[in-house]
User: What shape does this take?
Amino acid sequence: MCALPVHAQESSGPPGGQATQQLQERVKTLEAEVAELRAIVRELRSRGQLPVAQTAEAVADKQASPAASAQMTSTDRSTLDFLRDTTVNLTLDTYYAYNFNHPIGRVNLLRAYDVVSNLFSLNQAGVIFEHPPDLAAGRRWGARVDLQFGQATDTLQGNPSNEPRPEIYRNIFQAYGTYIVPLGKGLKVDFGKWGSSLGIEGNYTKDQMNYSRSYWFYFLPFYHMGIRANYPVNERFALNYWLINGTNQIEATNAFKDQMFGFTANPRKTLTWTVNYYLGQEHPDRSVVPPTSPIPVQPGLSFQAIRPAPDGRTHIFDSYVTWQATPKLTLAVEGDYFVQRLWRNAAPGQSSAPSHADGGAAYVRYQATPKLALAGRAEYLSDRGGLFSGLNQALKETTLTLDYKLGDGFLTRYEWRRDFSNQPSFLTDVQGILSKHQNTATVGLIWWWGRKEGSW
Assistant: This one.
């Protein structure tokens, strides 16, 4: 089309006469140009140099495409909705640590994840499949599976002294199904294996304030197998209950079922307070022996009863608070008391004397810029009875961590940590000689990607 400017006071002849004549001449010129272009197109088509854009078949396909699209949408809608609500998320956590004690074997004692030094190390590679419940869509059920590989797997995922067949579950960090019971504000029930929420720290490094984990993360349970329930009384208070096989046990070593009672409170939007009380019995009532029955059984399922079996209880009191003091400043504190007895009641040759550990940790984190953050941790663990370290000692550590985010899903962490004790506890470069302290410098590189938002 051609747009011609028209001004009211330009014409001196009959109204619109000159403009009409100019427009007619312009139309004749355009018609001639179109005729010439059509001739060129016909010639190119006849030579096979230009495909036919609109054949009868093409027109028919185009006219039929809306119906085909509607048919596909109707048939595959449930599948598409499922994929839309399901997330696949991956993480890669690597590090290099330098231990200034130059320990024999390059081992960092009393560390949960950064267990070796002077090596390029793979802490963990993980994959998360999650399909959460969606009440708005009318779906009350959901499920989640976390697969884990690397050094952290060996730290977290059981050992033969604690459960009979840990190797068959080794790479399954979490696997549980969820159902929200239509009771009150919704009773959320999970069944399966999940990472423990005893203690403020968790598994995925990107969600922690520091790269290394605290003593308490290493000491408290890593995972549980059983049933857990969460009921929100209101928007600021929720109750928690677990009925489980035991601490770090998918297959229990006794018939006792451990329990956890707790609550989570949000007195303010910036303040979260969690309290947990755990009651358990962790002593086995059987031991694994070579197969003795003529009837075949799976490996690891031949047992001999322990008579009498120790029945002492385990009590864990755990509480932690997180306060978002300002948009950039986060403060947190954790307190723990752990007591365990071998026998519930004293008898000749059976002691009910308690072994216990107590202490806590304090955290601070400052987000200086969207990419740069600084965090610190100070911790104390009184290990009376050697439940954690095997020695009666008072363990302490301080950690300083610098975060630099190179991009969404790529975080670098630079960390200095000092462990120290009132007893020689840490390896040195001399065989058999222990030190009362251990200093490490660590660089961690963490990648993660996927559609899951927030903490994993």
